[in-house]
Each structure stands twice: as structure tokens, then as C-alpha cells.
Write a structure and sequence with these properties.
The chain is elongated and about 75 Å long. The protein is mainly β. It has five helices and 20 strands.
Length: about 425
């Protein structure tokens, strides 16, 4: 098997961004291979349909190549042994002025056109009786304008390169996942997660969680409920990218970009809201780069800007937010019970640009929640889904029959 894999496929790349990958060769026997090379090249394709012109225009943008493996058999170097061999590579996207062909920059206002950029990574193996090619392809639409969707904060401007075409199918993740356990007598523990709408880059997120019991027996030291313990917590961070024109197409990362697991815990569950970081041995921070939009001021006057790019298109919009999923287990009445709560979208702010804004974060969130509550009351929505994501665990008191969870507990490994 001869294959090329791109390891960090992102939904958005910027000028000068790097990406990594690996070339994999599985050999059943030793092979007399002389060289393995890899090439990274890009080309643009535009199609114009007017009364006087039609057809495709293909233009080469750039090309880079390097040798991953070479063997000088005349120097007595042994052939490639049997087994699995891997070679890592890193390539860098060109700067934005180099990667856009002139056709994109100076195209007149025709009624209709199609344009995109194709980047390919190709690996070639060459040897005695051996020739093969493997490739990985990334297809992008050019972006004329982007802006941050959420929040009234200022944005640090940085011109984007291009963004990949979203796949035809994307997995939609439900807003709230609930585990519900029934008992002969309902003694409910409501697990509610409170997360601010804004977070600061590389600083701990203000995570607050509350365990609220609907039975005053929780204060009795002789009851089973008072012996409830939080035994494990897992926090998973997902990125959400909105790509589109009038209505962005939401793409959520199918795998978490960061996971933190805390096991072997035995923390008494107190009534009321507590800071989750007070219960964890280490704080949880978002180290991913915040999304940065593009300044469109003066685009029509600057021939090297992206303003004239595809003017017949609607203005594209790109947003980058994040979502947290927190799951855990509670040990009570001799059984483990699981909970799973999910946050709404979190906007990540720059540490330097938004220091003053961050200091007012709690007040802004409270005002934002107040406005959300007012809108919810008008629309008849459940305010709890806005103020915090809530899940109810129904736990029996001592002496009642203990029933198993209808849904398996979330795995906390990884």
C-alpha cells in the first residue's frame, strides 16, 4: 500500500499556514526503491459564462517538491526492508498575493462565474520495476470577505487565504443529550452547566456546575444522598465553523480538538452552584487560535485586495466558535450514575486585544442572559436551556429499589 495522509485538515487556512502529513508505504517484501518524492502544488480553475466568452481557464499557482527517501545502491546501501514505513512532511501555504492568480484580482463584473483553487499533495515512488503515485487533494472556494458572526467586540483583522468546500453531508450534534433514570420515589438531582458566551485565549474558562436536589433529605447526614460523590469528569472541546453566504453552513468538528479526563475522584457533591475548577486538579483552557476576520475598508481602491473577487457572489460569512461537552459519573446508593451536559457556542477572544472586554465578561454575559430570558418568555421557550444546560438524574433514597440507567454511562478513557 502506498498512500498520502494529511494530518491536520482544517476548515480554514490562512496565508503562510503550515500543514503536516505522512506518506505510508507497506511492503510485503524488501523493495529496490531508489527515491520517494513528494510534491505540493496548486492551480486555479475559473469558468466564465458571458455573451462573448465561455470555457475554463486553468492556471498554475505554485509548486514545491522534496525528496523523502533516496538510496544509492552503487554505494552498497541496502534495499528498503519489508514492513510499514512512514515519512512525515510539512508544507506551507504561500502568501495571499502569491496564491491568487491575476484572473481573480482583475476580473470584470460578468454576470456569472465559477472559481476555485485546488491544492494537491502527490507522492511518487520510483525503483527497479516499481512506479506508483499517491495523492491527497484539497479543494477550496476563494473568499472575498469574512466577518465574525458572534458578539459586539472588535476584531483583529487578518486576510484569509481560502476555505475548503464543505462536504455534502455533515454530522449534526444534538443540542442537549440527557440520561434519565426512573425510581419508585423521585429524588432528583439536577445537573446544570453554566458557561459564559465569551472565553479568553489560553485562560481558564469560567466553568460552573450545580447539583440541585429536590429533596431536603440531602442535608441529613444519615441519608444516602448526603454520601453522593463525584467520581469522574471528562471535558471535550469541539470547534464549530460556519461557512456560507446569507445563512452559514455549520460544520462541527467530528472529533474533539482537546480532551481532559479526571478520574479516581471522590468529591462530595454540595448543594448549589460551584466553580468546576475548584474540583479539578488542573484548569481547562482553550489554546486554539481565535477566528480573525478580514478588514474590507478600501478594498475597491486597492487592486491587490480581495474586494473585486467574484463580485456577483453574495458576501460569504465565516465564523469560528467552540462547544464544550462535559460528562461524568456520580456514585450514590451503591451505584454509578452518569450525566452528560453540553454548552452552547462559545466565542474565543484574543488575550491582548480584549483584556478590557474580558474584565467585563461576567456583566456582559448576565446582560446577554437577561436579554435571552426576555426573548424566551415572549417566545414561550424554556429559560433553563438559556441560563444553563440542565440534566436531571432521578436517584432513589436508601431502601428504595435501584434501577439501572437506560443509557450506558459515557466512557471516560481518553
Amino acid at each position: 500500500m502506498f498512500n498520502v495522509e494529511i494530518e491536520n485538515q482544517a476548515w480554514l487556512y490562512f496565508p503562510g499556514d503550515r500543514f503536516t502529513g505522512v506518506v505510508i508505504l507497506e511492503a510485503a517484501v524488501s523493495l529496490d526503491i531508489s527515491t520517494i518524492t513528494i510534491k505540493f502544488h496548486g492551480k486555479s480553475k475559473t469558468k466564465v459564462a458571458t455573451e462573448t466568452e465561455s470555457g475554463w481557464n486553468v492556471q498554475k499557482i505554485f509548486e514545491q517538491s522534496r525528496t523523502l527517501y533516496s538510496r544509492d545502491k552503487y554505494a552498497g546501501e541496502p534495499p528498503l526492508s519489508a514492513g510499514t514505513h512512514k515519512w512525515s512532511f510539512t508544507f506551507q501555504f504561500p502568501q495571499h498575493l502569491a496564491c491568487y492568480p491575476p484572473r481573480f484580482l482583475f476580473i470584470p463584473s460578468e454576470r456569472r462565474r465559477i472559481a476555485w483553487v485546488v491544492y494537491e499533495v502527490k507522492a511518487y515512488v520510483d525503483g527497479t520495476g516499481i512506479k506508483d503515485t499517491a495523492k491527497a487533494k484539497l479543494v477550496f472556494w476563494p473568499s472575498r470577505r469574512t466577518r465574525l458572526e458572534n458578539g459586539p467586540m472588535p476584531v483583529e483583522f487578518r486576510k484569509p487565504l481560502i476555505f475548503p468546500v464543505p462536504p455534502a453531508k455533515s454530522r449534526q450534534i444534538s443540542k442537549v443529550a440527557l440520561l434519565l433514570k426512573r425510581a419508585s420515589k423521585k429524588v432528583e438531582c439536577s445537573v446544570t452547566l453554566f458557561i459564559p458566551r465569551f472565553a479568553i485565549l489560553s485562560e481558564p474558562i469560567s466553568l460552573q456546575i450545580s447539583f440541585d436536589w429536590n429533596n431536603n433529605l440531602v442535608d441529613d447526614e444519615n441519608t444516602t444522598l448526603s454520601q453522593a460523590r463525584l467520581t469522574a469528569i471528562r471535558i471535550r472541546l469541539y470547534s464549530i465553523t460556519g461557512i456560507g453566504y446569507k445563512t452559514p453552513h455549520t460544520l462541527s468538528s467530528q472529533s474533539p480538538i482537546k480532551t481532559a479526563s479526571y478520574t479516581d475522584m471522590s468529591i462530595p457533591i454540595s448543594k448549589g452552584r460551584v466553580n468546576l475548577h475548584d474540583l479539578l486538579p488542573a484548569p481547562f483552557v482553550i489554546n486554539a487560535e481565535p477566528y480573525k476576520g478580514m478588514d474590507m475598508s478600501g478594498c475597491q481602491d486597492n487592486p491587490f485586495s480581495l474586494g473585486p473577487l467574484c463580485p456577483s457572489f453574495e458576501t460569504p460569512m465565516i465564523s469560528r466558535t467552540y462547544r464544550l461537552e462535559i460528562s461524568g459519573t456520580i456514585f450514590c446508593a451503591g451505584k454509578y450514575r452518569g450525566f452528560h451536559v453540553q454548552s452552547g457556542e462559545i466565542v474565543l477572544l484574543s488575550h491582548v486585544l480584549h483584556r478590557d472586554f474580558a474584565m467585563k465578561d461576567d456583566a456582559l454575559v448576565e446582560m446577554d442572559h437577561a436579554a435571552e430570558r426576555e426573548r424566551a418568555e415572549v417566545m414561550g421557550q424554556d429559560v433553563l436551556e438559556i441560563d444553563g444546560i440542565q440534566q436531571t438524574l432521578e436517584i432513589p433514597t436508601a431502601g428504595n429499589e435501584v434501577l439501572e440507567l437506560e443509557t450506558p454511562l459515557p466512557e471516560l478513557n481518553g
